[in-house]
Amino acid sequence: MKSSLIETLEGQFSVPLSRMRKIRSFVTKEMDAGLAGRKSSIAMLPAYCDAASGQEQGGYLALDLGGTNFRVMLVELPGSGKPPRVVAEAKYRLTPGQITGSGAALFGVIAGYLRKFLKEHAITAEIALGYTFSFPVRLLGIDEGILMKWTKDFSATGVVGRKVVAIQRQALIRKNVRTVKIVALANDTVGTLQAQAVLDPDCGMGVILGTGFNIAVRVASRRIRKETGTYRGKSMIINMETGNFNKVLPRNSYDQRVDKDSGNVAHQFAEKMIAGKYLPQLVRLLVLDLIRKGQYFDGHVPTVFRDKESFQGWHMDVFEAGSREAVQKLSQELFGRDLAPSERRMMARVCRMVSRRSARIAASLIVGALTRLERRSKQRVVVAVDGSLFEKYPGYHRVLTMAIRELVGPSGKDISLKLTKDGSGIGAAVIAAVVRQGSQN
Ligand code: GLC
């Protein structure tokens, strides 16, 4: 009886090729609607820059806000297609109170840490800064934009509908930081694309598979029917905001519950099936049902499954693919005992069904996005990917690659997914350089 229940759930979490194809074709439709300024679940937000050429040079600051950690980096771009160098870096943790409190306070905290960074690294001369702000922002140009909504459980007040850079600038002035000039505002997917494009001109797509999920793609300007101000380049990078895609997804009752429990109900449906923030929440709900209906854990709910945050992404890694010793050690920590073989198998199967589904849906969205990619070369497509799910989750890269091949057939071998570590931060520095050098205008 137990195994049949798990099998039913596996059925609910499977994504057959026919469904992946449907998702792909709806992604293309939604992209076109978004590019034309029509109603769409994918916003298709212009990034006001084209892919970097590799000639970008100089020293720039990058500020990277998109999750509970935010980073400040000093990046040196050598130019000539050589890899950027992170000269100095600091990571700061934001508290739940800060990301859900007042916006002015949140930006003040960021300004304070930036001031600390400048002091510690004795940066006194004027310096240009690229700001990676990984939320849906409607840019007004390369260096200003309006926050459309928060995602990933941020909810700081007084920011939605307002100019993000202006608010950050005011906070910098309040902290007496006057040497830093914010010259570019970008999404993390755009930064990731840029960080790879510096090294490889065939890179036309940036993907984040981490706490959140999103794609940026290089699109021919003639396809962009909506307002793009004074931008004159032949192609432009578009922050798709694919996390909000909501057509033909195989959502089930567990997805509905994750949504109901989230800080942004009825938004970000694809993200809630794909991203690292939500996968452990799905696992938790599945395990809770299996405990209630079967004999696992003697019918008692272990403490780690009582609230929605305690069971975490790295726990999934271990249960799905960890060594016997690693599983044993973690089980002791989480449950105070080793698991019975049947419980171990159940945990592994649940984690696998949730992570596989994530990879197969992500693949469908990536392949959908490829249909509108403006390529530099006919032969190959390089997709820059950053994020802990892609980098660290065992087997994720492989399942994603296989699903892409299943969808596109033999030409799939020309698509390469490149891990672009720290892409979001480095890319912001690249965009700052593009702006300062005026290389795209
Ligand atoms: C969320 C944000 C998006 C970001 C993604 C990855 O989907 O809305 O802007 O790119 O997370 O961090």
Topology order in helix (H) and strand (E) letters? HHEEEEHHEEEHEHEEEHHHHHHEHHEH
Distinct small molecules bound, one entry per kind = alpha-D-glucopyranose
Rg over alpha carbons: 22 Å
Report the end-to-end length measured between terminal Cα atoms.
66 Å
Which CATH C-level class of the largest domain is it?
Answer: Alpha Beta
Assigned CATH architecture of the largest domain: 3-Layer(aba) Sandwich
Ranges where pLDDT stays below 50 over 5 or more residues in a row are none
Order of strands, widest sheet:
1-11-10-9-12-13
Overall mean pLDDT stands at: 95
Please tally the β strands and state the result: 13
**CATH topology assignment of the largest domain:** Hexokinase, domain 1
**Structural class computed from helices and strand pairing:** alpha/beta
List keywords for this structure.
single chain, 441 residues, alpha/beta, Hexokinase, domain 1, Nucleotidyltransferase, domain 5, 2 domains, six-stranded mixed beta sheet, five-stranded mixed beta sheet, 15 helices, 19% strand, globular, binds alpha-D-glucopyranose
Q: Could you characterize what this model shows?
A:
With about 450 residues, the protein is α/β, with parallel strands linked by helices. The chain has two domains: about 1-45 and about 200-420, Hexokinase, domain 1 (3-Layer(aba) Sandwich); about 50-185, Nucleotidyltransferase, domain 5. Helices cover about 40% and strands about 20% of the residues. Strand 6 (about 135-140) and strand 7 form a beta hairpin. Helix 4 packs across helix 5 (about 165-175) and helix 12 (about 340-370) crosses helix 14. The longest helix has 30 residues, at about 340-370. The model has no long low-confidence stretch (mean pLDDT about 95). Alpha-D-glucopyranose (GLC) binds next to helix 6 and strand 10. Alpha-D-glucopyranose (GLC) binds near residues 134 and 241.
